[in-house]
Amino acid sequence: MVEKPIGRDFLLALIKRHLIFSSIIFFICIFLFGFELPEIFLEQQIKYQTQEILNRNDFYRYCTDKASKTYLKQHPHLKLIDVSDEQGQTDKLSYHLGTTSTNIGLGINVYHYSNLPYSKIKIDSIKVWIHPQK
Fold first, then answer.
1. Are 129 and 108 in contact (CB under 8 A)?
2. pTM above the 0.85 mark?
3. Are 102 and 78 contacting, i.e. CB atoms less than 8 angstroms apart?
4. How far apart are CA 13 and CA 10, in angstroms?
5. Within 10 Å of residue 99's Cβ, how many Cβ atoms?
6. How far apart are CA 93 and CA 88, in angstroms?
7. Rounded CA separation 53/57 (Å)
8. pLDDT tens digit sequence for 70-99
């Protein structure tokens, strides 16, 4: 009677038998945990912080120009539905694009507190792109 490996022994036996398959799984995990998931978490954090700013009464402090302040005052209930990947970066400031439910573009400058990627961030400024995106 052949005894079936259990637990760690089973995993080691599976890796030895299916080396190519386990290598593919390993590289997919490295890609997901090293690159994709942190980027998704960062975008969600930017989306959350920007929406919190849009919901507050002092949002005008974050606007970069008078047209943005005026637009946000006239449309106090904007809902941010999407945030793009990083569009550019200078020193500790990165630039992202946001899209609202009314299809208005927002330029979002994000300040990074640390040199470590995906660590602490703070929304630095917001610019409204008045013309709807197509």
1. no
2. no
3. yes
4. 5
5. 17
6. 9
7. 8
8. 888 888 788 888 888 778 777 778 888 888
